[in-house]
Amino acid sequence: MKRQAASTEVQHHVPADACDAHIHIFDARFRQTLAADDMSAVPTTVDDYRQVQPSFGTTRTVIVTPRNYDVDNTVTLDAIRQLGIDRARGIATIRPDITDGELDALNAGGIRGIRFTLYTSDDAPTSFEMVETLSHRVHELGWHLQLHWTAAQIVEYSNLLDRIPTEFVFDHLARLPIRAGLAHPARGLVERWLTTGRAWLKLSAPYLDSLIGEAGTFSDMDVMAQHWISVAPDRLVWGSDWPHTSMRPGPQPSNIIAGLNRWTGCASTRRQILVDNPARLYGFGDPTNLLAAESLTLR
Q1: CA-CA distance, 150 to 148, in Å (whole number)?
Q2: 24, 229, 266, 273: which has the fewest C-beta neighbours closer than 10 Å?
Q3: CB 63 within 8 Å of CB 20
Q4: Highest mean pLDDT range out of 233-242, 260-269, 287-296?
Q5: 145, 181, 149: which is closest to 164 by C-alpha?
Q6: 70 phi and psi, to 5 degrees?
Q7: How far apart are CA 247 and CA 257, in angstroms?
Q8: Strands (DSSP E) along 100-212, which ranges?
Q9: Please, what is the Cα angle at 171 between 165 and 177, to 5 degrees?
Q10: Which residues form the Amidohydrolase-related domain (predicted)?
Q11: Least confident segment among 23-27, 40-44, 108-112, 209-213
Q12: Rounded distance, CA 291 to CA 152, Å?
């Protein structure tokens, strides 16, 4: 990938220890076991991310296992090791047949949650039927569920989310369709879960639902993002969604950060979303995570 220069303006607006809470790695050293589209088949390595990371101004990272790797999380564990467990965490994909020992190894490697990518459920590595069982399995580890679901799926499975023990994170602004916007019935559900401490939400990938695109810096998504900030600023994290497999070429980092600056409006809110909230959700700064890393190294 072409190197992108760090932006002084971006660095000025982004606080120290800022976290990019949503990236993917597609490393050709690890075989993709599910069919890949042309965009996600393009190799993007940790070294590639290191080149673009200064443009975001972040120093902490959360790597999310892409669906292309099925339930093989090696690519994510390897990325955490390269970036350092003091600066990186991961979100895995698993199924109910995983053993307790395998879960412990993922935890030691920096995994802090599991993802259900069911927005497009065809050929998905997981299913809605697995959610409750796996929620109970990972609850003992203090993990959360990460949900890339449609707004309609959020409504349909709201009773399921009400009864699971774990906290859960909605990907990509909860994917409310822009034409329905805040009038969609999923909004009230997500608000309830956010304000009662059951859920979190990622301010990420506005281009997935924007109708005006990068030419308008995705500003038609501003109302939605600002609404979530007004409702629960203490339950939000931000992610770049690098390498932007749904949009090639991907958006310029300056346009992504410009959106965050518009949404937040002030330095204290940016710090909350970029530093304080991800530290709580993913355990950055927790010395027990470093002990886990040492244990993994000794195995």
Answers
A1: 7
A2: 266
A3: no
A4: 233-242
A5: 145
A6: 55, -125
A7: 17
A8: 111-117, 144-148, 168-170, 199-204
A9: 120
A10: 19-284
A11: 40-44
A12: 41
Q: CB of 214 within 8 A of CB of 255?
A: yes
β-pairing, 111-117 vs 144-148, is parallel
Tokens, residue 12: 């000025």
State how far Cα 46 lies from the chain centre: 16
DSSP state of 187: H
Q: 171: closest CA among 213, 227, 117?
A: 117
Strand order across the 88-92 sheet: 19-23, 60-64, 88-92, 111-117, 144-148, 168-170, 199-204, 236-239
Closest by Cα among 85, 112, 60, 53 to 271: 60
Tokens 């069982």, residue? 133
Predicted local distance difference test score (pLDDT) of residue 154: 99
Please tell me whether residue 164 adopts helix, strand or coil conformation: coil
Residue 141 has which token pair?
């580890």
Cβ burial of 102 (10 Å; 0-12, 13-18, 19+) is: middle
Q: What share of the chain is helix, strand, coil (3-state, %, to 5)?
A: 45, 15, 40
Q: Please determine, for residue 5, whether its predicted confidence score (pLDDT) is greater than 60.
A: no
Work out the burial of residue 81: count CB atoms within 10 Å of its CB; fewer than 13 is exposed, 13-18 middle, 19 or more buried.
Answer: middle
What is the separation of C-alpha 126 from the centre of its chain, rounded to a whole number of angstroms?
17
Domains detected in the chain: 8-298 (3.20.20.140)
Residue tagged 């069919």 (tokens): 35
